[in-house]
Amino acid sequence: MSENVQRTLVVLKPDAVQRAIAGELLARFERRGLRIAALRLMRVSRALAETHYAVHAGKFFYDDLVKTISASPVVAIVLEGPNAIAVVRAMVGATRPHEAAPGTIRGDYALVGLRNLVHASDAPETAATEIALWFPEGVVSYTRDVERWMTDEGAPA
After folding, report:
1. Residues in Cβ contact with 73 at an 8 Å cutoff, skipping those fewer than 6 apart
2. Which residue of the set 52, 56, 98, 119 is catalytic?
3. Given this model, what pLDDT does residue 156 score?
4. Can 98 be counted among the known catalytic residues?
5. How far apart are CA 77 and CA 38, in angstroms?
6. What topology is assigned to 5-136 in CATH?
7. Domain coordinates of the chain in residue numbers?
C-alpha cells in the first residue's frame, strides 16, 4: 500500500441489515472507488461489542451501544483506498442522524441516535486496532486496473 492508501473498518449495523439496505450502502463505498479488503456477515458477541465500544465504557449510552450492535447480524467490512478514513467518515455523515447532511448515508437513511446504520473508524490508530479485532485472520491485498483511472498513481498522462 502506498503512503496515502489507508484501511478502515466499516460495520453496517443491525438496523442496516434489518432494513435490507446493507448492499446498497456497500455499493456507495465501492462506487466512490474504495476497495473491499475484507467482508463478512456476522453476529456480534457481547464480548466483541464490549471490546469494540470499550472507549465508551461508563458513559450513559454504553449499554445501549452493546445491546444494539449485538441484537442482529452486522456486515463487517475493511475498505481501503486513498485517504479512506476521511472519505468514509465524510460519506457516513454526522453521528447524530438529525445533524447529518443530505447526501451522506445517515443524512439519507437514518433518523435517530442508535439507529445510525454504520460505524466507521475515526483515525488510523483506531482503524488498525478495530481491523485486528474484527478480522484477526487478516485482510486480502489485491489491485484493480480501474484504480489507475481513479487516483493519481499510475494515471496515464
Report:
1. 14, 17, 41, 42, 43
2. 119
3. 60
4. no
5. 5
6. Alpha-Beta Plaits (3.30.70)
7. 5-136
